[in-house]
Amino acid sequence: MLDRSVWDEDAVRDDLRTYVVAELGDPEGVLVMDETGFLKKGPHSVGIKRQYSGTAGKLGNCQLGIFLGYASAKG
User: Fold this and answer.
1) Which pLDDT belongs to residue 42?
2) Strand 30-39 to 58-71 pairing
3) What is the pLDDT of residue 33?
4) How would you list the strands of the sheet with 30-39, edge to edge?
5) 31 in Cβ contact with 68 (< 8 Å)
6) Residue 16 Ramachandran class (φ > 0 left, ψ -120 to 50 alpha, else beta)
7) Which residue ranges make up each domain of the chain?
8) Do 43 and 54 meet the contact criterion of CB atoms below 8 Å apart?
9) Are 74 and 24 in contact (CB under 8 A)?
């Protein structure tokens, strides 16, 4: 289904922003960013590189994920 759908990325972004501001918006809300390393073995994952992973505390084959969240007293 998703591979045949037509997406308007700008409209999706705008709808999500409208929802977050209306439902979760708070003058003291903050964006929370987290970089997490995922140790990987085997040939079936993309973006694997030998690099430092704080999760493992050492060098190893891993992927890095960057996550962005929003936190407020409402959620």
Assistant:
1) 76
2) antiparallel
3) 92
4) 30-39, 58-71, 49-53
5) yes
6) alpha
7) 2-71
8) no
9) yes
Q: What is the pLDDT along the chain (75 residues), one digit of tens a residue?
A: 667 888 888 999 899 889 888 888 888 888 899 988 888 887 787 878 888 888 788 888 888 888 988 888 877
CA proximity to 62, closest of 34, 35, 38, 44: 38
pLDDT at residue 73, rounded to an integer: 84
Question: What's the pTM value of the predicted model, to 2 decimals?
Answer: 0.53
What is the rounded distance in angstroms from the CA atom of residue 31 to the CA atom of residue 72?
9
Q: Which among 68, 65, 33 is positioned nearest to 46, based on CA atoms?
A: 65
Could you tell me where the DSSP H helices lie in 1-75? 9-23
Cα–Cα nearest to 48, from 34, 65, 33, 35: 65
Q: Which residue has the tokens 């493992």?
A: 56
Q: Which tokens is 3 given? A: 């591979």
Amino acid at residue number 32:
V
